Amino acid sequence: MNQEWTVIDGLQYSAWSREIFEQMREGGLNAVHVTIAYHENTRETLTRLGEWNQRFESYPDLIRPVYEPADIAKAKAEGRIGIIFGAQNCSPIEDEIRLVEVMRRLGLMIMQLTYNNQSLLACGCYEDEDSGLTRFGKQVVREMNRVGMVIDMSHSAERSTLEAIDYSEQPVIISHANPSHFHPALRNKSDKVLDAVAANEGLLGFSLYPFHLKDGPQCTLEQFTEMVAWTADRMGVERIGFGSDLCQAQPQSVLEWMRVGRWSKVMDYGEGSADNAGWPDPLPWFCDNRDFPGIVAALRERGFSDDELGLIMGGNWVDLLTRAAQPCPPPDMQGAAAALGSAAEP
Question: In angstroms, rounded to a whole number, what is the distance separating the alpha carbons of residues 34 and 88?
């Protein structure tokens, strides 16, 4: 791995431990976008944030929080892994738009509008009918733009995704999914969505979750690099990165929480088959973070230059976050006080 690159994985949800953080370092990663919520409400999300604070205390030699994009460079300079907080659902804000700013100030940098199902904001990819952005969804999109929280449409349906891209004043990302051109999983994205993300100057993070790949766990590294090359040609090499969706060392109960949450009493098969009701077998060429250098070598063999690889492995993530995830400015207390004073004058 080129030491001059900034290497970022755009989505993981593992059973966090010193061993996994050490594997990240060994694999050359500088930052990782971690999921802190699937179906957690506001109170439960605060607990998840508190658990991460404890990890920062426990492993100060390995990890540090990323509250703004500049913290990624600091993490790299310190030899630590920058941890970027994200939510895979809008449940942390419940039904209160003011909580968008509160969550951003607590460090939540990325939030999906939906997780598979219809939410208060938009429609998920498993619903039969896609109603697009709701009235509340449009308000939240603009609020996320205002406070510097990145909009993620990884688990959203097509119309909702396209409407979010059209309505947002900032770039929209697909942090972890693949082109449906290569594998028609419900979670994967059509050419129309890829084109819209590219035109929006957003980003697609390639998923390494086997059920999102052609032939599942039997997908070859050659097939994967073919998909990357095709997507780079279509979207531009500046619009792609990695969002591995690595869920390392997680029990079956975590998969059930992702799929079922509180809304169902039975397992949601999602993709349409009971065959994926459990964790898939890992890809032989990607088992954990230490396997990223092997993917880089295969992409280099496919014909990507060193500069292009630097963008794909993390440079594009840094650019996207720098443009769309700046810290929320503090309230204009001076202006508010002046307005109050002016109103009080006779």
Answer: 10
Please determine, for residue 137, whether its predicted confidence score (pLDDT) is greater than 80: yes
- The tens digit of pLDDT for each residue in 243-296 reads 999 999 999 999 899 889 999 988 877 655 555 668 899 999 999 999 999 999
Q: What is the pTM of this model?
A: 0.94
Tokens of 91: 């449940």
Tell the residue number behind the tokens 């030491």, with chain if given. 3
Cα–Cα distance measured from residue 31 to residue 70, given in angstroms and rounded to the nearest whole number: 12
Q: Which domains does the chain have, with CATH numbers?
A: 8-344 (3.20.20.140)
Note whether 171 and 203 are within 8 A (CB): yes
- Range list of H helices, the chain: 18-26, 42-58, 70-78, 98-105, 135-147, 158-167, 191-199, 221-235, 252-260, 292-302, 306-310, 316-324, 333-344
Task: Provide the sign of the torsion angle of the four alpha carbons 180, 227, 206, 241, taken in this order.
Answer: negative
Half-sphere exposure for 193 (CA within 13 Å, toward CB): 28
The pair of three-digit structure tokens given for residue 85, joined into one six-digit string: 């907080």
**Is residue 237 classed as helix, strand or coil in its secondary structure?**
helix
DSSP code of residue 313: I
Q: What is the pLDDT of residue 338?
A: 59
Q: What is the per-residue pLDDT for 343?
A: 53
- Residue 344 scores a pLDDT above 60: no
The residue assigned the tokens 């720098």 is 322
Find, among 5, 11, 87, the residue nearest to 289 by Cα: 11
